[in-house]
Design brief:
Layout: H1 2-15, H2 19-26, H3 38-48, H4 61-64, H5 71-83, H6 89-103, H7 106-118, H8 123-130, H9 140-155, H10 160-194
Length: 212
């Protein structure tokens, strides 16, 4: 009898998905291609083109496409901030990693950690960011970017020394590019967290959850 009861309980556990998995499936459920409106189809075609080469069913686009008036504006901003600023990929991707760390946005970290290393960011710098620590071995421009982003996130103000260091390295236009990157990826992080997007595999070590 006990074995039968145990077997029944096991079947019940298998049949009922976990709450987190159920929420992941139901939040911003991907649309089918045949269900797209003309505006949504136009957006899907837009993001499928190089250099993005994205699928509308993947995060965060499956959330964006539900608002086809907002979606192309977000992607136009993303296109500039990712590929058309004067910042090298090493710095722009570092700014994205800082933002992902701030939100503990695992999907964003998973997607951009390899891009940061490919762009030339030292893995020890990225790993220190993941641990919530100020990296020891940063280049001067990396230190200026880190201090600016950290001042905005943690202090909610930018001191004169931090501003002066950023100004010397990036100029006023470059400072606005950095602010644009972290601001846009704040939005991305919030979208990914809301839709409960998780990395598809464990090829990138996840961010540790930091104590408050």
């Amino acid at each position: 009898m006990k074995s039968l009861i145990a077997a029944g309980m096991l079947v019940a556990l298998i049949a009922v998905p976990s709450a987190s998995r159920a929420e992941e499936i139901t939040r911003f459920k991907p649309l089918k291609a045949e269900d797209l409106t003309p505006a949504q189809k136009a957006y899907a075609d837009l993001i499928a083109a190089p250099p993005r080469n994205a699928k509308f069913g993947n995060a965060p686009y499956r959330a964006y496409i539900l608002n086809p008036d907002l979606a192309p504006k977000l992607s136009a901003l993303s296109e500039y901030l990712r590929w058309n600023t004067n910042l090298p990929a090493r710095l722009s991707e570092m700014a994205i990693l800082i933002t992902a760390r701030e939100w503990t946005a695992q999907y964003e970290w998973f997607a951009h950690y390899p891009l940061a290393l490919k762009g030339g960011l030292d893995p020890t710098v990225a790993d220190a960011i993941a641990a919530g620590k100020r990296p020891d071995s940063m280049k001067d421009d990396e230190a200026a970017l880190y201090d600016l982003a950290t001042a905005l996130y943690r202090d909610k103000k930018v001191s004169d020394p931090v501003y002066k260091a950023a100004l010397e390295k990036f100029g006023e236009r470059g400072i606005m590019d950095i602010i644009g990157i972290i601001g846009y990826y704040d939005l991305v992080s919030m979208t990914l967290i809301t839709m409960q997007a998780e990395p598809p595999n464990d090829s990138v070590k996840p961010l540790p959850v930091l104590s408050k």
